[in-house]
Amino acid sequence: MPDAQLFQLPARQPGKLARNSVRLLVLLLAGLTLLTLIGIYAASQHLYHSRLDNLERHARTQAHNLEDRLTQNLDLLHVHLDALIRQQPDAAIDIGVLQTVLNQLQDKLKYVRSISVVDVGGQLFMSTNPGNTSMRIDLGPQLPPLQADNAGRLRFGMPWSGSDFADGARLDASPASDVSSTFFPVTLILPETPQWTFLIALDPGYFLQALGDSASSEAISGKVVLADGTLLFSSSAHDRPGSRLHTSAPLDGTDNSSSAVSARWKDAAGRQQLASVLSSSNYPLQVLIETPADDVLRHWRQDSKTFWLISGISLSALMLLGALLAYRTSRILQQEQKSLKKNLLAARVFRHSSDLIAIAGSDKQIIAVNPAYERVTGFSAQEVVGTVIGSNWIAPEHLDHYNSLWTELETQDSWDGMITETHKDGHPVAGWLQVNVIRDQQSRPLYYIAVLKDMSRLHTAEASLHKLSLAVEQSSSSIVITTPGAKIEYVNPQFLRISGYTLDEVIGACPSLLKSGLTPPETYRNLWQNISSGKTWHGEFINKSKDNKVFHERAVISPIQDKQGNLTGYLAVKHDISSEKEADHTMRLAVRIIDSIPEGVLICNAMQRIISINPAFTQITGYTHAEVLGRRPDMLGVPERNIRAVTSMRRALARRNTWHGEFHARHKDGHDCIISTSVSLLHDQNGNISNYICVFSDITEAKQHQQQLLQQAHFDPLTGLANRVLLDMRLGQAMRRARQQQHMLAVCFMDLDGFKQVNDTLGHGTGDQLLITVSQRLVDSVRGNDTVARLGGDEFVLLLSPISDLQECQRVAERILGNIAAPITLEQQLPVRITGSMGISLYPLNDSCEPVQLLELADQAMYAAKQNGSNCYIIADAGLPTQRLP
Question: How big is the chain by its Cα radius of gyration, in Å?
Fold first, then answer.
């Protein structure tokens, strides 16, 4: 603009310009016209190429953004999968562990829709998406062939429609509605698990987010293409994922370099097109950014037409006024020469002032700004010239304030006040603004001169100082500043809270007022040795508060020096670690207790792997810490004997986080033992299991002693049959079951015929052998769930439960008596023949009976059988005996 020339420094003094002839002026005007035309043409071409270059740079930037996001996320996926088996070796053998690890990996990688595992038969036997499980998929047609050196590398398949394999189908050339309805598969075969193929479904929309707002614009499209030209996904709704890409953009010559290759061409309609292609640095993928240049060139054509129109009018006017200018030139130049010195001074002030200066015309549009303005606001002169003052850079909260100044300047010649502008990058620039108005003779505004004194640095320094002050005041650490003579100058509130002193009590005092006498003197000597030599000291104090409460502090003390290196004081930052010390003491005490108790203790992590044991563990099991570390506790058990105990433990831990019971364990030397065990769960702050605590003791001897006592209390020592105590227990239980299930039972009371004679004749030893043989024959005559008991001497009771009817009872009784009557050969090779007499009572035929009465009825029936000639049985029926001979 012509007005802007007022603020340019002249290259030289005009000298004798006032005496130039009209001919020289005409030549100058002609040259000016030619230069103007050349300049306009050059500016137009420069603008043309500049706008295309800007568009090309934007396309390259978008290509790099998309390629970076794609490659980095694929690298991240590859790294996680490649380290999966090494970091989690159980995942290769335990599908549950593999499922958990893959679910955690999918939660971490937001662009992964699912991770599935395919066996050699093409079946998805495990997936983070339950809908994919049990699917069968043929990976062959979708993936490039696997070369010998490609094991452990990612391979990319044809895109699919849908959100995952469960509801999707492979895309060949069918159009997809949008990128959210498609995904593309990636596979990986790990060397550790060659029998599995990891199949990952990736979300294209996640990668297209790298394009920002451009991805939603129809004017620019981003595409990712496989090495064979197949379109993997695109931001354009007109593209077809899965089809061969048809584009006029030259893709030949692209390689794996880190720079994008750009091209410009005209399509069949003559429209200018632009594209940028970039190959992925690690994968056989190409990123293509396409954009039409019509919109950019349309603005360029409009601007060019405007420039040429204005130039034509200006040049015509210039030629018409040439004669007039020739006449007035000498006079004008003479006047200009007089004011040149004033303008030169003003221009120097304008250019070199540290204040921001903007000059606007009567229409309030900026016609010039000084370099300080460009430097402080970030806007160039070209960006602001022609705009209204404040339209681009006044902060929104100051708009009302800004509008009021124009109202005031309608009647006043100046205005000043505090105001905040906005830098080009968005940060605020605060300053004192003064606006002056230059008016013509009719008091109409000619120019507005705005001068802004930048105060943002001052405000920034004040804000930083305030923020630092708040940080110190609100710090959880005690902060103390002293003079070089160790007199306290400043303490923060945390120091006062911990020490119990008031501010007046500590200012001017020595930090030694906190001494408790418990800190070793060597600590203080080391402290002064370091800070006196200009070094920072780290250590711990045992201090005492005003109320004599002892506390521990971890301190960092440094000397404070000015710019000249002179000592101005000391800074101490201290943190109360009393709770840490107490916790450490408690922890050490707990460790000593655990190591000293006679019970074995083992601690497992959340994966049920042993991480710690105590000495008693080794004494009980024989295993050392090194032998069990990292192993599962079930290494100690006898699996076939612990099934019920393990089931009970799992149920109890799920309900109440604790369990007590017994396990069968196997010592390192191979012998079995019984351990009484208590298991408890520990949880972290999120409620997840963090540890298993197991405390146990060896109760093998106690269990053996208990078993001996039970044997003596319930079984006959001679025959091993149940005794009267156990018979009473089983009879009561059998009668309750008979009532509940409505079936019959029989009590058979039997006495041996002629046993006393054998005992007296052959001796008690032979009698005992006879009783043992008879006992075995009785056991062999009944079922496994029936009970055979010896009451003493030669009296036996058989409990038959259940029985279906009276006939079954009779058959059993006849079988028993027949087996007893068979000849018996004892150790002396003496054949002995003996018989038995049996009385039988039935339940519920005698339903009014108690167990004792049922035995009495059978006893009475037995005596009735003896009176009827022995070797027979009698069934008691409501107290009336009925004889049945075998």
Answer: 52
By DSSP bridging, strand 873-877 and strand 835-843 are parallel
User: Which residues have C-beta within 8 Å of that of residue 406, sequence separation ≥ 6?
Assistant: 364
Query: For the domain bounded by 475-582, which CATH number is listed?
Result: 3.30.450.20
How many C-beta neighbours within 10 Å does residue 813 have?
26
Give the three-state DSSP class for 873: strand
Cα torsion angle, 190, 193, 197, 202, sign = negative
At 466-518, the pLDDT tens digits run 777 777 777 888 899 999 988 998 998 989 998 899 989 989 999 988 888 88
Single-letter residue type at 647 = T
pLDDT of 17 higher than 60: no
Q: How far apart are CA 845 and CA 875, in angstroms?
A: 11
> Above 50 in pLDDT, residue 1?
no
Superfamily of domain 597-705: PAS domain (3.30.450.20)
What sign for the dihedral angle of Cα 414, 420, 422, 423?
A: positive
Report how far residue 26's alpha carbon sits from residue 20's, in angstroms, rounded to the nearest whole number. Answer: 11
Report how far apart, in Å, the C-alpha atoms of 796 and of each of 239, 771, 820 are.
96, 10, 12
CA–CA dist 620, 598 (Å, integer):
9
CA-closest candidate to residue 171, choices 224, 240, 228, 246: 240
Strands 478-482 and 445-454: unpaired
> Which is more confidently placed, 214 or 173?
214
Largest CA distance in the chain: 174
Domain with CATH 3.30.450.20 in the chain: 54-295, 353-460, 475-582, 597-705
Query: How high is the pLDDT of residue 219?
Result: 66
CATH number of 353-460: 3.30.450.20
The CA dihedral of 97, 98, 101, 106, to the nearest 10 degrees, is -150
CATH 3.30.70.270 in the chain, residue ranges: 715-884
Using pLDDT thresholds of 50, 70 and 90, give the confidence band for residue 358: confident
The share of the chain scoring above pLDDT 70, in percent, equals 85
Q: Name residue, tokens 């990319």.
A: 156
Residues in the chain, overall count: 886
Q: Is the peptide bond before 802 cis (omega within 30 degrees of 0)?
A: yes
DSSP one-letter code for 73: H
| Cα-based torsion angle of the residue sequence 87, 93, 97, 98 in order, rounded to the nearest 10 degrees | 80
The pLDDT, as a whole number, for residue 442 is 81
Domain 54-295: assigned CATH number: 3.30.450.20
The one-letter amino acid code at 91 reads A
User: Superfamily assignment of 715-884 in CATH?
Assistant: Reverse transcriptase/Diguanylate cyclase domain (3.30.70.270)
pLDDT at 525 over 50: yes
Q: Which two structure tokens, joined as six digits, stand for 283?
A: 């994968």
Percent of the chain surpassing pLDDT 90: 29
The Cα-based distances of 294 to 52, 267, 297, 384, 796 in angstroms read 10, 11, 5, 26, 114
Interacting residues of 213 by C-beta distance below 8 A, sequence separation 6+: none
CA 562 from centre of chain = 47
The neighbour count for residue 5, using CB atoms within 10 Å, is 11
Q: So what's the pLDDT on residue 882?
A: 44
Angle (CA) 572 578 582, round 5°: 155
Residue reference for tokens 């009825």: 857
- Over the stretch 633-684, which tens digit does the pLDDT of each residue have? 988 888 888 888 899 999 999 899 999 999 899 999 988 898 999 999 999 9
Quote the pLDDT of residue 462: 67
Q: Which two tokens stand for residue 219?
A: 């004017």
- Rounded Cα gap, residues 578 and 199, in angstroms: 53
pLDDT of residue 883: 44
Cα separation, 419 vs 428, whole angstroms: 10
Q: Is the pTM of this model over 0.85?
A: no
Task: State how far Cα 678 lies from the chain centre.
Answer: 33
Element at 416 (helix H, strand E): strand 414-422
